[in-house]
Structures are given as C-alpha cells and as structure tokens.
Amino acid sequence: MSVASVIHSETDFDVRKIREDFPILKQQVHGKPLVYLDNAATSQKPQVVIDAITRYYTLENSNIHRGVHYLSSQATMAYENTRTILKDFLNAASEKEILFVRGTTEGINLVAQSYGRTFFKEGDEIIISAMEHHSNIVPWQIVCEQTGAKLRIIPMNERGELLPDAYEKLFTPRTKFVSIVHVSNSLGTINPVKEMIAMAHCYGVPVLLDGAQAVQHLTVDVRELDCDFYVFSGHKIYGPTGVGVLYAKQELLEKMPPYQGGGDMIRSVTFEKTTFNELPYKFEAGTPNIVGGISMTAGIRYLQSIGIEAIGAYEHELLEYGTEVLSSIRGLRLIGTAKNKTGILSFVLDNVHPHDVGTFLDVEGIAIRTGHHCTQPVMQFFKVPATSRASLAMYNTKEEIDILADAIKKVMKVFS
Ligand code: C6P
C-alpha cells in the first residue's frame, strides 16, 4: 500500500487525539512545552500502559506458575495471555517460540551464549553489519573469544545502506550465523532483511534480526520473513523498561541448552541431575518481570488499535518533512540518507559539537539524543565523533519539527 493511500495529513491521522493519550507530553520543560524527539532511546507510555501497571499491582500482584491460589492463577493467566498476544503480533507459529527477556540486549546475549557457544567452533564465521548497535556486536565478540570463531562485517555506503554484493561475498563454508539490525538506530536505514535472510538460508545459515527499532514502525511477520530469531525491547514500543521478547524457531530452541539456571526452568532437580522444563520455560529462569510483560502488551494493543500501517505512513510523512526542513539549514549535514528509512534524523552541524546542540535544545524544551548512540563503528565510518539525533514517534508533529529547526538555527547563530 502506498504511503499516500494510507494517510494524507496529520488531520486524518488525528495526532492531537493520540497526544491526549500520553500524559507526559502535556508538561513543560524549562518553561517550554516538551518536544520529545528521543523516541529511539525510549518511547513515552500511553495511559493504557500506565493503567495496566497500576491495575496489576492493585488487583493481581502475585508470583506466576507457582501458586494454586486465586491471585497466582489470575497473574499466570494474564502473563500467559500476553505471550499469545505477542505470538499473534509477530505471527509466530506457537507460544513456545516466544521467550520473555529483559530486552533486545539480553535476547541477543541469550542466543550468542546458548546457540553460539554450543555450535560455533574455531575458525567459524559470524556475519554482522557495519551499522550494528553495540548490543549486536559485543555478545558476538564474547562468543568469538570463547569459541575461536571470527566476525565478518557487511560494509555500507555513504548513504548508510548495506552493500548486497559484498554481503553475498562474505559467505564461505565456515559461515555459521548472520545477525543483523532490521532498522538502524543511528541512521534509520531499513535493511532488506527478507532478501538477506533468503540468501543466508541458501547457504544453510540461520539469521537473527535485531528489531529494537523496527517493531514500533513496521509490520513484522516472522514467518513471512522466515527469520530464525527476532528480538525487541518493550520500552521502545510504548511499553515499560526491563522486558522484551525473543522469538526463535521451535526446532532451534529444542536444540539449544538453557541460558540461565534457576526456578521455573526445571522439570526435576536432584543433586545428581536436573532435567529441564519444556519450551518456552526452559529459557525463563527465575521470577520474570510479570508486570512488564502484561503492560508491554497493553502498549502493543494500543499501537494495533491505531494501526501499524497508519503509524508507519504518518511517521514517514514526518520524516520527509523533517528531512526537507533540516536539509535546508546551511551548515547541517544529515548522517543516514538511505532510500528506505524510518523516522531518524541524525545530523552534525559545522563547528558545533553535538553535546552542545543537545544542551542548547534541552533549554528550549526539546529532547534529542546526542552521542554515538551505541554505534561507535557507525561514527567511525562517517568520521564524526558523535551526532545529534531526533527520532520520531506517532505522537510527534510537523510543528515540533519546526520548533526543532528554529532551535538548531539559534544554536548555529550562537556558535557562529
Ligand atoms: N538503542 C538508542 O538510543 P535495549 O537497551 O536492550 O533495550 O536495546 C538495545 C538496542 C539494540 N539494538 C538497537 C538497534 C537499538 O537501538 C538498541 C537501543 C537505544 O538508540 C539506546 S542505546
């Protein structure tokens, strides 16, 4: 469906009504209306998510999978129901393929330690890309240290797009795994993951997608993508911090050993031998973030009630507007100009350090992120120490982009 056919203007989308659902947006910061443009770091929470947290602690609080009493079975039902919502959200084949984790970072570490440490050996190769978040670099470096495997890196061009031919050339008989970001957090690039997965599968190699910046903007269907692992964080999809999801194909999970040991992941324990629980519990040791899981799905249901296609189309309209407005500022260079992007506007200004930009904008009530965005290799590629990054969500407006642009012009004036 084309962007234009989904949405025509802010009015159609009713962004004003959506903003009403996010109480935090109503406040003033340093005497100015808050302009929140740091959504890639974490999104704000709608009232339904805040209510789900309050309701859980007011009416349902209890440990799950353990008690026979009323509250425990209510909490267990609510928690397991969220697994079903997540299964449907990702179009996974079964609840057994949905693991609760602390977030994207823990999901990738789980796969690196459980799958990688078990199946990689000396000389094996793992392909990642030049635009990975540190969370999709360091866990693989650790497993390389442990097993003797090596990292191979898919290069990118000056627009921040991966090079498909170079990707294909990286495959050798030693390639054992591919782990790539679906949408880059510092560039906004949407990678052609379906094609990349198909290519890896031609060589019999499984693929993990880091979906931390994708699920809140794009429809993700793990069966259509045919990815082997998919991971995302609750707090970037309008839910709370400290909870996320790892999807994995059941056949792979069956072969993988537990990541952590403890309560709930066992079937029986003696001092001589422990047998493990069935999927997905084999990978969920200890009391989980129960309220996190339940309220994360309140966020997902909220997003679904608006419609992910409509959100994506609206954000795309904002991105196009923001790109035009920011590009017209003399002395501003956009970093990340891929053809296929989500709402990330990373930029550098002539003669002004990004941290000064961030501090100045904060005084104007504008929240952006400045720094390397946990993607130092991306900064090295573009030969910049850091960037300023405005990241968009469904509740942002063109008016806020204008406020951002005016504030940037002021910064440039002050520093010139
Ligand atoms: N990026 C940003 O400001 P956690 O911290 O586990 O929820 O997510 C880690 C992570 C992994 N992959 C990608 C692509 C990400 O964007 C992030 C988090 C935030 O860009 C915080 S560094």
In short:
The chain is α/β, with parallel strands linked by helices and 416 residues long. 42% of the residues lie in helices and 16% in strands.
How would you describe this structure to a colleague?
This protein is α/β, with parallel strands linked by helices and 416 residues long. It has two domains: 3-45 and 307-415, Aspartate Aminotransferase, domain 1 (Alpha-Beta Complex), CATH 3.90.1150.10; 50-304, 3-Layer(aba) Sandwich (Aspartate Aminotransferase, domain 2). 42% of the residues lie in helices and 16% in strands. The strands form five sheets. A seven-stranded mixed sheet has the order 4-10-9-8-7-5-6, sandwiched between helices. Strands 13-14-17-16 form a four-stranded antiparallel sheet, with helices on one face. A hairpin with a 2-residue loop joins strand 1 (28-29) and strand 2. The termini are far apart. Ligand C6P binds at residues 40-41, 103-105, 133, 135-136, 181, 185, 210, 212-213, 233, 369, 373-374.
- Rg from Cα: 22 Å
The geometry reads as: globular
The count of strands amounts to 17
Overall structural domain count = 2
Proportion of residues in β-strands:
15-25%
CATH homologous superfamily placement of the largest domain = Type I PLP-dependent aspartate aminotransferase-like (Major domain)
- Terminal CA distance reads 45 Å
SS element count, helices:
16
Bound molecules: ligand C6P
CATH-derived architecture of the largest domain = 3-Layer(aba) Sandwich
Helical proportion, percent range: 40-55%
CATH domain topology of the largest domain: Aspartate Aminotransferase, domain 2
CATH class of the largest domain: Alpha Beta
Strand line-up of the largest beta sheet: 4-10-9-8-7-5-6
Structural class: alpha/beta
Major sheet size, sense and barrel closure: 7 strands, mixed
- Stretches with pLDDT under 50, minimum 5 residues: 1-8
The pLDDT mean sits at: 96
